Amino acid sequence: MIHGANLNVNYGYAYTQVSHRTRQREWEVAQERVAVTQSQLADHQAAIYNLRQRLADLNQTYATQSRDLQRQLVQQQLEVRQRQRLGLSTSRAQQRLAKLRQQRQTLAGRFGQRQRRLHQQLRQHQTRASLFNERLRQRLARREAIDTDTLCRERNLDKDQVMLTWQILLANLHDWVAHSFLAPVWRKLSLAKATQMIYRKAGWVTWHDDRIEVILEPYRYTDQQRAMEITCSPFNAANLRWHDGRLLRISVASPAKF
Fold first, then answer.
1. Structure confidence at residue 4 as a pLDDT band (50, 70, 90)
2. How many Å apart are CA 32 and CA 134, to the nearest integer?
3. What pLDDT is attached to residue 163?
4. 48-71 mean pLDDT
5. Exposed/middle/buried for 132, CB within 10 Å: 0-12, 13-18, 19+?
6. Which residue has the higher pLDDT, 172 or 4?
7. Contact 193, 187 (CB under 8 A)
């Protein structure tokens, strides 16, 4: 029989070297933060690229439109001077010249407004990108500072499971024995108390051809002696047998013999 005390003795655990899961989870959390910052930084960098492209397109469009208006102004000025030399009316030519100058002024004004707005947006995104770039540097440093290379010991907990299974098994066996064989006064004994008083009781075993006799040492107290005598009766009446077929007989020695 396995003594109940053995179930609580730590004979050591086998272990394997595994990755430190706590450090791994910390690294994963840090990596998620890095990924969020990288995404935010990428958004601002994309916005900066788009704004610079829009500025380049705006400058090119303005330059093209400005050159076209300047060409028209030069032609109109030549027409005005030519009509003046010929003594012809220049009122309509002057009106067209004034209109072209107004268009050039309007074009320059609109270009300036759009350019200032784009430059303002560009500066805002550049400022935010600089902040996120610094945040990314800090988060990368914190992530890299987490030690995920050092392994840790992971205990093999099979022993705990085996010991728990044995404890449950013994508790169930004790409950069955208590209700099936123990004297009424002993049926509420705990497993620990029953192990001390009954299951680990000293005695003698005699092996016969047709039976196995177990004689327990007598108890010091009369009530315990009587309770064991009562317990032996239903046990023997059950005609339980050993695995080889021999009958099991149990009794308690009489105090008079000692």
1. very low
2. 17
3. 74
4. 95
5. buried
6. 172
7. no
Residue range 116-134: average pLDDT?
Answer: 96
Q: Please give the Cα distance from 116 to 108 (Å, whole number).
A: 12
Q: What amino acid is encoded at 86 in this protein?
A: L
pLDDT band per the 50, 70, 90 thresholds, residue 88: confident
What is the strand order of the sheet 203-207 is part of? 203-207, 211-216, 247-252
Please report how the helices 91-145 and 21-86 are oriented relative to each other, as an axis angle in degrees rounded to 10.
Answer: 170
Residues 38 and 177: beta-carbon distance below 8 Å: no
Helices (H) and strands (E) in the chain, counts: 5, 5
The per-residue DSSP string of 100-166 comes to: HHHHHHHHHHHHHHHHHHHHHHHHHHHHHHHHHHHHHHHHHHHHHHS--SSEEEEE-THHHHHHHHH
Candidates 100, 60, 56; CA nearest to 78 is 100
52, 122 in Cβ contact below 8 A?
yes
pLDDT at 8: 47
Report whether 148 contacts 20 (CB < 8 A).
yes
- What are the CA-CA distances from residue 156 to residues 6, 16, 22, 79, 153 (Å)? 19, 8, 18, 101, 9
Transcribe 175-212 into DSSP letters: HHHHHHTS-GGGTT--HHHHIIIIIT--EEEEE-SSEE
Q: 189, 185, 196: which is closest to 228 by C-alpha?
A: 185
The pLDDT of 91-118, averaged and rounded, is 93
Q: pLDDT tens digit string along 14-24?
A: 666 666 788 88
Length of the chain (residues):
258
